[in-house]
Amino acid sequence: xxxxxxxxxxAGGKILDRFLEYDxxxxxxxxxxxxxxxxxKADLMGLDYVPNENRVLIGxxxxxxxxxxxxxxxxxxxxxxxxxxxxxxxxxxVSSEIDAFLIIAGLGGGTGSGGSPILADHLQRLYVxxxxxxxxxxxxxxxxxxxxNAARSFQSFAESVDNLLVFDNDAFKxxxxxxxxxxxxxxxxxxxxxxxxxxAGEVEALGDNVAESVVDASEIINTLGxxxxxxxxxASEPVDPGGGxxxxxxxLRGGSKDENGFSTAGDATNRITSLVRKATLGKLTLQCxxxxxxxxxxxxSGPPDALNRKGIDKARKWLEDQTSCMEVRAGDYPLxxxxxxxxxxxxxxxxxxxRVKDMQRMAIExxxxxxxxxxxxxxxxxxxIQYGDDEE
Length: 392
Ligand SMILES: Nc1nc2c(ncn2[C@@H]2O[C@H](COP(=O)(O)OP(=O)(O)OP(=O)(O)O)[C@@H](O)[C@H]2O)c(=O)[nH]1
Prior knowledge:
Blueprint: E1 3-8, H1 9-26, E2 31-38, H2 41-45, E3 55-57, H3 60-63, H4 72-81, H5 83-90, E4 100-106, H6 111-126, E5 131-137, H7 144-160, E6 163-168, H8 169-172, H9 179-200, H10 217-224, E7 229-238, H11 248-253, H12 265-281, E8 295-302, H13 309-323, E9 328-334, E10 340-348, H14 354-385
Parallel strand pairs: 1-2, 1-4, 2-3, 4-5, 5-6, 6-7, 8-9
Antiparallel strand pairs: 7-10, 8-10
Guanosine-5'-triphosphate is lined by residues 9-11, 14, 39-40, 67-70, 106, 108-113, 136, 138, 142, 146, 169, 183, 186-187.
InterPro entries: CetZ, CetZ_C, FtsZ/CetZ, Tubulin/FtsZ-like_C, Tubulin/FtsZ_GTPase_sf, Tubulin_CS, Tubulin_FtsZ_GTPase
Function: Involved in cell shape control.
Organism: Natronomonas moolapensis (strain DSM 18674 / CECT 7526 / JCM 14361 / 8.8.11)
């Protein structure tokens, strides 16, 4: 699937940069056009892969290149003021090559959080291609203001895009290291999941290795639909076509190798079904009740001998049961030199998402608390500056 990607704000820009690195190192061809938009000049300068001419500084007259300071209203203002600048950068793309737009943003800050829904609305008016969002939720311990920003942006972003794909930093946070290192690891997780999904739809990269049942861009677009929230599950397992993988686990699975050391069909089927279970029941990009899914897509990638239709059919039936939805698409994506088999499960249109309710509760508490503090500090300030009336 070929995307016009727009990284909005600091997190959006960094993740876009990582997508570009992934795309060029693997030759997947998923990025048709890439633009970074920010109100902070330093963040734009820190990017490595986004071409200089596609870095758009917005809101200079509002925030003078210093960023929106975690204030989404300012992010929104910057975006409105410079929509034409952003559009000029988008105009450089060959729009006939693009299947969809993807706007990437951290929802807890100011620029991406406030600006992304404005840009999505604008693109909806101009283009027939679907406009998707990739929204990054802050972790719980970032505190009230980030969760309040995210709760507001989550609503307006979800309303303005065709589908909001969500990644929750909270579910993937790593302990111990510096924030920068932690984000680098989290960003790898993001790229692994979403990169694998979008590359699957980019069938030209397959060359002669035609998949048994191809998942193309239109399958992804139909799964994502025209409104809703999406969570993604992922699981992978290393395979060694050279024959070094015939350990205990393989034997227990009842699998075996042929004379060339390749997995036999039974082995491949079991591996696929167990990976799909792990992907669905393990850590999702947004933890949700799987049976609240409206549409699902299942994709299995790996070396051709490790993929088979029986495994995918079995896994698809299992996923239909779990999600209780009839619209479950499935396909494979052969990668001849790949050393792992991976299952990606797309749960689109999910509605039972406790993490979102939790974020909204934190947001309401933060708003009430800041209202209380505002009125308290107003009274306290009056007490402090009042002069000469004390004895009256
Ligand atoms: N996954 C991930 N999340 C990040 C990263 N950097 C920041 N975030 C998240 O994004 C939120 C803040 O968004 P930023 O993108 O830094 O903010 P911004 O849009 O640039 O807005 P301002 O800085 O207020 O102008 C934080 O609360 C984090 O949750 C990153 O590299 N990866």
